[in-house]
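Appendix B, example 12.
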Amino acid sequence: MSDDIDRVDTKRDLEKTYREGKSSFLQLARRVASGFMDAEDVVHDAFVNALARADVAAPVTDYAAWIYAGIRNRLIDLWRRESVRREKGDMEVAQETLQEIVCATGLDPSDAVVQEELADALADAISSLPPQQREVIVAQVFDAVSFRELSERTGISMDTLAARKRAAVRSLGRALRDWIDED
């Protein structure tokens, strides 16, 4: 009976810690995760795992530190999976690249009014990129070509292609921020 009460108290304390610290947990995860959804998933998974192991947590005195440790472990797992995918050249390039560009602008892509104008502004910005950067962005976003495939096709190293993509994303982000400021 005492173990059940301890477990209920532990779960209650974990839930309270989670509610009070969720924004800081999420802030930590967002600094490392590749996107907001991944960050939310990491935080949620860490909390669910902590709750599932509440019977083990009874001797834990700092629940926030325990949840942070779980978040850190899940971020490491996420980083390793993404690292392996990149090494193999497997990526969801179009979605990932578009998210990078939109994040660089600060726009809310779910705003229906903005979507059509954003598409036009993005097309203009892409067409104004230097040819080498434009080729990487077009191949990745529209043709869904991985760095590995593009490297094999062009003979240009994956690192050089990645550098061109980063430069293109920064340029597109600046161009779209300028577009926002004009309106």
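The chain has two domains: 2-88, 93-182. The chain is about 85% helix and 0% strand.
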